[in-house]
Write a structure and sequence with these properties.
ATPase_NBD; 19 helices; Actin-related protein 9; Actin; 21 strands
Length: 592
């Protein structure tokens, strides 16, 4: 303990974090790094596999309900007009020339000194593997490392043709490169997580999802963290899971980490709880604004309050799609074929435009931007245009009917029943309890953790999604705590994390909308959003690193040998026994 009083935090992270890998998976990106790092690698959570030579790019989860119904379209237009009245801009179909509202314009060059705007085009991924021996026979290994790409591209035409003749297709492509594959190429693009759950459907079976998950994570460990297979047993892993994950999803991922990727031990932490530690807090209302899902959960003194959890089925990608709809409606979008379903590279472009130009502020917000068109295997075309109503799409967080999220097929209901020899033997068993220890502090050797009395961690169906806006979800979550002293503290300790939290003007908008949403009979008059101490996107990952480094006892960690021996019936597929005990081991730190 004397050592802990004198050690510098950065020194502690360096000493104890060198063999701790922290993984924070999300619907769009996965954040991975060693605990000693200042920030993780953020990699698109997708993979592309080569298919039949004569086929074109196939998006595996393309079979979804993306058709907007007439009723949804009317609700969207109504939401736009409500937002327009709040922002003091013309209504959707109102001509600017006929309005008396004073016109406030953003800078036409789109310049904002606080925001680094990127107008460069994305490039198509090179899907071929070159035969280096025949294409560059005279170069040594040291020469290759210093030859710039431009010199390689300037070779003669004959040399290029001979090289292309010997090229082969890359069998698997990972991360952003997978999103930049031309639609004319023979690949199947697969996103591993959709709307906060494993992307399982009748078109993308569970075993295939898990195999792709293993392949992508193994590639990250090899190529980004440089941890070879033979050294994995020297490392432990901290898994920071979203609140949307269900019991079986966590167990399948634990099996990949301990069984397939061969980590020596693992511990699981909840994303909201890790975020609190990542910002050095103990009590807060954590609002996670991700790419496809937003969630709210309250933390009191380092303990997650499960009855406060709210899940909203929209996120940053929905704001990007709304940006495209808004520009097309106002006829400011160039006459190009932009299709985010069949051309994922278009979604990359829209996300970049949203991050660069969208913010929440009163008055008309226009900007001149460069929009790119991506046609099959052709270089990107540039189109300079004036984008309008750039403050409307992010307001969809408070009026979700503006966003109209795509409906992705959820896993079959039977998949969540989780009764493959997992719960039948233990669900009705009596477990011993210790009365001489505080709640939530039972050792991992005792399966009877009192937290299970009020923590519903064995759902028989996907977790319920709320059909309300962000302000209503935050207010409902905090008021559900039922204690006025805690409620006042939480309303003044709102923490925004996730990529959308970087949106300009979002913090004052959240404070104002939440304050107006609190019922008048509640004695609460102050709402405050706390400034994040680090990049909001990386806060949960950083909190996971801190929790792992400070966990000296490691009572809650699951060891590889125990998981394989007690958690899986060897030779009979992915089946588990004594699930109650294993989950208590893996999850007891969530509420401690």
């Amino acid at each position: 303990m004397d050592y802990l009083k004198t050690v510098v935090p950065s020194q502690l992270l360096a000493e104890r974090g060198s063999n701790l890998v922290v993984i924070n998976p999300g619907s769009a990106n996965i954040r991975v790094g060693l605990a000693k790092q200042d920030s993780p690698f953020s990699i698109p959570h997708c993979i592309a596999r080569r298919t039949d030579q004569f086929s074109k790019l196939n998006v595996q989860d393309q079979l979804l309900n993306s058709q907007v119904t007439t009723a949804q379209h009317m609700e969207r237009e109504k939401a736009y007009d409500v937002i327009a009245s709040l922002l003091k801009i013309p209504f959707l179909d109102e001509e600017v020339a006929n309005t008396s509202i004073p016109r406030k314009m953003g800078r036409v060059d789109g310049y904002n000194p606080q925001n680094n705007r990127k107008d460069g085009a994305f490039t198509w991924t090179d899907i071929h593997v070159k035969d280096l021996k025949s294409s560059v026979p005279q170069e040594s290994s040291s020469d290759k490392s210093v030859v710039p790409e431009s010199s390689v591209q300037n070779e003669g035409t004959e040399s290029k043709e001979s090289t292309l003749a010997e090229q082969k297709f890359r069998e698997v492509i990972f991360g952003e490169e997978a999103l930049r594959i031309s639609p004319s190429e023979p690949y199947s693009l697969r996103r591993l997580i959709r709307r906060g759950h494993l992307n399982i459907s009748q078109h993308y079976p569970m075993q295939q999802v898990l195999e792709d998950l293993h392949a992508l994570w193994d590639w990250i460990l090899l190529e980004k963290l440089h941890i070879p297979h033979q050294e994995r047993s020297l490392y432990s892993v901290i898994l920071v899971v979203p609140e949307t994950f269900d019991n079986r999803e966590i167990k399948e991922i634990l099996s990949i980490l301990l069984g397939d990727l061969c980590f020596s031990s693992a511990v699981v932490h909840q994303e909201g709880l890790a975020a609190v530690f990542g910002n050095g807090l103990s009590t807060a209302c954590v609002v996670n604004l991700g790419a496809q899902v937003s969630s709210v959960i309250c933390i009191e003194d380092g303990v997650a309050l499960p009855n406060t959890e709210k899940t909203l089925p929209f996120g940053g990608e929905d704001i990007s799609r709304c940006l495209l709809w808004t520009q097309r409606h106002h006829q400011t979008w160039p006459q190009i074929r932009t299709d985010i379903l069949t051309k994922p590279i278009d979604l990359l472009m829209l996300n970049r435009l949203k991050e660069s130009y969208c913010e929440i502020k009163e008055g008309e917000l226009d900007a001149v931007a460069v929009v790119h068109s991506y046609e099959d295997a052709m270089p990107a075309g540039s189109h300079k245009t004036r984008l309008t109503a750039l403050n409307v799409p992010p307001m969809g967080l408070f009026y979700p009917t503006l966003l109209i999220p795509d409906l992705y097929p959820p896993p079959p209901r039977s998949w969540f029943h989780d009764y493959e020899d997992m719960l039948e033997e233990t669900w009705h068993m009596e477990f011993p309890r210790r009365s001489d220890m505080p709640d939530g502090l039972y050792p991992s050797t005792n399966a009877g953790l009192q937290m299970w009395d009020n923590y519903p961690f064995f759902p028989m169906k996907p977790k319920k999604e709320e059909k309300v806006g962000l302000a209503e979800a935050i207010t409902s979550s905090i008021l559900s705590t039922g204690r006025i002293d805690l409620q006042r503290k939480l309303f003044c300790s709102i923490q925004l994390i996730g990529g959308v939290a970087l949106t300009g003007g979002l913090i004052p908008a959240v404070e104002e909308r939440v304050l107006h949403t609190i019922p008048s009979n509640e004695a609460i008059h102050t709402v405050e959003v706390l400034q994040s101490r680090t990049i909001p996107t990386f806060v949960p990952w950083k909190g996971g690193a801190i929790l792992g480094v400070l966990d000296f006892g490691r009572d809650a960690w699951v060891h590889r040998e125990d998981w394989i021996r007690n958690g899986i019936h060897i030779g009979s597929g992915r089946k588990y026994k004594d699930s109650y005990f294993l989950q208590a081991q893996a999850m007891c730190y969530i509420n401690s």
